[in-house]
DNA sequence: TTTTTTTGCGAAAACGCTTCCATCTCGAAA
DNA sequence: TTTCGAGATGGAAGCGTTTTCGCAAAAAAA
């Protein structure tokens, strides 16, 4: 590989001068600068990221935590879209993306140690189990960090407006004449709490009594659980006329139960998802499309602000999505 | 951050000794080695990846090319599952994964230059447009590389057995009594060529004449194109009784056309996908599940072999998948 | 005992880069 | 004329490692 030294020799200048020319420093003659740049280009020079990092303590590398909870991982459209958007924004700004894991040198270690070892300039926690103490350790370690869909104290975050999402969906069902609206909620997380708030709020505002048997626990991205929960709802003496699932994917499980019960959608029962994934939209599922592009971009912008220290805002941005009406909620 | 020097001072030995102790070199006393290791642990020492890379020319970092063709990108289940599997195998072996892009320092450049700049030990080309000259440049640059679903000369690869896949699917349709089997093939790539071979071979072996109007061009992962192609097939004087789609996702487009034509699956027409993605399986789509776990693992193993120089096999591994019968092919 | 071998450890260079500071030149001000 | 300051350039240190080589001490052989 061609190094600064090679260019220096070819140009009859010092290594220091070459470095300055290439980095656009001020104290250098215009003509020498241009010459050095031209020669460097000709020789196909590329700076050595390791050497530069060693000297400057900046890697221009962002660690991304993206954990494969329940085998969904990268294949989970919501998260992978966010990652996609985050990544492309980061690349525009000159940062690369490396996955964080809990090994260093092939040995079990911790997320934080891995990040320190790799000297990431910052980390983005996109998809993770926020109850894992290792995650909290990382988010609050002092390394610039940003979290998505969860907020730690003193760590900037961006979250999807889950309350609003469930409000809009519930309101939509109400506007179509439904009052027996069930909600199968997801895992016990912040996201779920926020969504429940939206659900309760909508019903309350519409003066619809809340029925406990209509609010049952499910899990995110789990077909079997959704199927079982749906069966449970359908077996009530007075079953709901509309079911809201934890997410679009879970809906596919509920659908199975509904069909097996000999019911049709939306004539016999209405259904609603959450996320706005492609395959759900194709089926015309009524859902709430989260704005993954904004989530990723904003998260990245905040992280880079934190890294570079300008206008650093240690707050929580809330991004709202949009209702996708579909055709799975019947007018009553 | 604590460095070798800090440990050396605390232990009253030289930096060289500490390095050797921590790296398990031979010429060092057992007791000093243990002491150094203990102190290092206590002080929370982590070696500096940049410094080490600078000195050794090894980054233990693998570049992964994963390009978002037609907006599918990370959300494409087939590729993201492969990446997932590749990643986890790499991490076990002490390698990290960084995404390749065509910028360096935020400026437009090329994939190869980006990889050189980052000094990746090797690169994996998982999802890309293999006709792009920049990809070929990268694959044949001399940097250890592995490609998936495409083979360049002198570059190890692993490909899914596409010929076999289409043979099995076609044979399955034939075994269910079909003879008017259409195939909407994907983009003009190696993968498509191989699959067409399988399709033709199956029909030929079964003495079923090949009808040109049944073999039409579609695209991978494109719902609209699949919908149009399906319409075209359905409008034939003698439409097929079974349609094989480029992939599971495309099927969702075809499904639309079929329903709009007032037909039902599989009573009026049988359908077959390819890939074995979750949502397709849920719907009972007859498909061919590719073995993404093996694809990722084998690719990673080959790449690391190439990097580390042991038993380096510059060949092409073929991985077969398995038929998922589903219930979308009627018995005739 | 002396000689040889083995073992344990350290000095120092090098990897490629950035940056502080010193030096030198030259035109402008005094 | 001398003095100054600005502009251009280079020397050199240092970032945290690894690794070669040399040296001393201890152990083994003579």
Question: How would you describe this structure to a colleague?
Answer:
Two copies of one chain form a homodimer. The first copy, chain A, is an alpha/beta fold and 332 residues long. Helix content of chain A is 44%, strand content 16%. The first copy, chain A, is built from 13 helices and 14 strands. Chain A has helices spanning 4-11, 15-22, 30-43, 49-56, 77-92, 111-118, 133-139, 162-175, 190-205, 223-234, 248-260, 278-282, 292-308, and strands at residues 61-66, 96-99, 103-104, 107-108, 122-127, 145-148, 157-160, 181-185, 215-217, 242-244, 270-272, 287-289, 316-319, 322-324. Chain A has a six-stranded parallel beta sheet, with helices on both faces. Chain A has a four-stranded parallel beta sheet with strand order 9-8-10-11, sandwiched between helices. In chain A, helix 1 (4-11) packs across helix 2 and helix 1 crosses helix 3. Chain A is elongated and about 90 Å long. The model of chain A has no long low-confidence stretch (mean pLDDT 93). The interface between A and B is large, with 50 and 50 residues. Chain A binds a DNA duplex (30 and 30 nucleotides) through residues 1, 3-5, 13-17, 19-20, 23, 25-29, 32, 47-48, 50-57.
